[in-house]
Amino acid sequence: MPKINLSGVEKNYGGNSANAVADLDLEIGDGEFMCLLGPSGCGKTTTLRMIAGLEHLTAGEIRVGQRVVDSVVDGVFVPPEKREMGLVFQSYALWPHLTIERNTDFGLRLRKMPKAEREQRVDQVMKTLGIEKYRDRYPSQLSGGQQQRVALARMLAVNPEVLLLDEPLSNLDAALRLEMRAELKRLHREFKTTIVFVTHDQWEAMTLATTIAVMSEGELQQVGTPNDIYERPANRFVAQFVGNPPINIVELGDGKSEVSQLANAYLGARFAELRDAGSIGIRPEAIRLADAERGVADGAVAGQAEVTGILPTGGSWIIELTAGGEKLFMTTHQSPEVEVGEAVTWWAKSKALHVFDKAGQRMEVADRLMRPAKLH
């Protein structure tokens, strides 16, 4: 499978509108499962449509392997049907008057594949996706999850070099989404197809992707593995967009909350350049409560707070802490031994702190923060 390279790609719909996609440089590797992640209107679907050839570039170039498929400067544009890519939309776009078998082999018939080879290919794909028993039914006789499998089977049958998926699971209920995520992971392992998947659902991206590209307002914010994106967010936007419950953000500087002053003193005592840096982020699962058996870890930031809420979520709990008007949320998989209204001591290890400057960009101090230090 070929690599896909986007170089300086821009898309503007004319007038005085801002770029839907601005100066995008992105490489999608051979056999990669790339998720384009971001909120509505961030440019992820526009990017997918430009890769597919459904949108013309305003500027830049798209290359698939060594082949240029779109270039504004060189005046090259390869139409969608010649890009050897499969596209599955949010709506499944199945032919209602054709059986499931005929929907599945539709692309193969257009390519005039010999009948014996076509039937063998269709049987293989339908069996892989578990829809062979529905071959004589029509789309209206299937559930949403089954229709989704048919849409995927139709694309996989033509063995595309690249499979493009535009939020294909958003119309399914929670149980079916979970089932289809597992199905997509299995298909990626089995077919080794390069997949580009558009979603606004962070959990979909985290569970499916080998690589995630986070976008906001048409601009690429960060590219990395799911662990990179979660554990080392490049800026505040990425930190706040990925994670549920969201990351706790504490603004630094004089005149802020009690927690802010505590965090500012903690950082400033270790690294003078971090005082009033901008803000820090603390993931809810990184916050702990001190008790008689387990006190505050050496070198950790710690403070006093009141428990103002306990929210069970099934298998875990979200605890709301309030200190001097600042709210912090923590999560735990152990049944809480505290009650609403109780005063507690909270703490978090230094390596769990994400430090951002005033522009919201990550400050690379993680390695030094991992070394325990005492306040003076």
From TrEMBL:
Give the family per the record.
Belongs to the ABC transporter superfamily.
Organism of origin: Aminobacter aminovorans
Q: Where in the cell is it found?
A: Cell inner membrane
Which InterPro entries would you find in this protein's record?
AAA+_ATPase (IPR003593), ABC_transporter-like_ATP-bd (IPR003439), ABC_transporter-like_CS (IPR017871), ABC_transpr_MalK/UgpC-like (IPR047641), Mo/tungstate-bd_C_term_dom (IPR008995), NA-bd_OB-fold (IPR012340), P-loop_NTPase (IPR027417), Transp-assoc_OB_typ2 (IPR013611)
Membrane topology reported for the UniProt record: Peripheral membrane protein
Q: Provide the Gene Ontology terms for cellular component.
A: ATP-binding cassette (ABC) transporter complex, substrate-binding subunit-containing
The ABC transporter domain sits at 4-242
Q: Which branch of life, at top level?
A: Bacteria
Q: Which PROSITE patterns match?
A: ABC_TRANSPORTER_1, ABC_TRANSPORTER_2
In the record, what terms sit under GO molecular function? Answer: ABC-type transporter activity; ATP binding; ATP hydrolysis activity
Keywords assigned: ATP-binding, Cell membrane, Membrane, Nucleotide-binding, Translocase, Transport
Return the Gene3D superfamilies for the record.
2.40.50.100, Nucleic acid-binding proteins, P-loop containing nucleotide triphosphate hydrolases
* Name of the protein described by the UniProt record: Iron(III) transport system ATP-binding protein
